[in-house]
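Q: Here's a chain of 383 amino acids. Please give me its 3D structure as tokens.
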Amino acid sequence: MFKKVFAAMLAGLFIAAPAFAEVKMNGSFFIKGNYVDTGKDVSTYESDFEVKTQFIVDENTSATIVVEAFDNNWDKGVGTDSVPVKVLVDSDDDGAFDTTKEGSAVSGEAQNHLQVTTAKMDHNFGNGFAFSGGIDGNGNSFGTAFNDDADKEYFLQGTMDLPFGSVTAKTQKIDETDAVDKDTDAYQLALTLKAGGFEITPAFYYLDKQLADKTNTKMMVYTTGKIANVDLTAEVVYEDDEARDAKTYGLYVQADTTVAALGVTVAGIYSSEDDNKAFKTGDELAIMDIATDNVEIDGANLFKVGVSKSLTEKISVDGAVAAILDNLDDNAAGNNQDGYEADLNAYFKASDAVTLSCGIATLDLDYMKDARIDGYAKINVAF
């Protein structure tokens, strides 16, 4: 039902508009070669083609769609990415489906290689109230990418301006079935306050898993602002997850500044544990090249110091080191996460649109038999 409501709203937007005043498109495409050494050498290739198209109906109304083509066999249709199906067909063209025919269809996995990651509409009603709805490419989007996931969800959102900020109400359809009281729904209420160059947003999140009769409740606070020449960002989350029987909390803080033409970043992540059940930092926030990106550090602390430098107009470099300290019960978990990571990257801007980059990183945690070494080379075009 939720999908039908959104489809009707989007169709109404296009039908009602006599003509689009403007269409904006941008995107990117990269090809990347990866090398990973974990005691066993592995080489892989990956790519991602993303196109964002925005249809601007007028100054108050727009529709946006983002399409991505990933590096899997999304173009095959059948074969290795197909699943067997049985369908009814009309064998004698009399209007009745009377014969069962075996065939194949593109599997869900194959379809996911070509994705519409975002499809939404936005409208400002002109009285301080703004509406947004559709498919959100980030299922738990709030504040930073900390504690977020990459699941696509249907959502409806309304924001009302206030004299001291704004209030936002959002609902998401996580799982939808035809059965009564079997869906999974999420609700979020946030208040954004602005004062003294800072933006502070406390929020309440409630997830209702009707089939399992379990709930997930979060209290969150996000803040961003500037002190002198230092940009600050922070997010703290307290989570009560009935499904895991765990009450945990996490914290993410980052400060960015420039010292003598050298970019400096200091960041930290804290992930608590409850009876050896770790706070989930999410799969969207990646502040290091391996840990927090390819290797989860749930139930640990990470402290990072990074620097960046432009050597010429076309060449720049950056590097970072991080210390990782485990919070979990080592005897129960069996995988102590104490260790460190070091990253080094270089970039060459071949043109306004094309950037070449390469990098190397090493991660060594106590539970690893050998330190992991990652390397990559990448070409990216932005348009």
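Q: Can you summarize the key feature?
A: The helical segments are 2-16, 108-111, 330-333.
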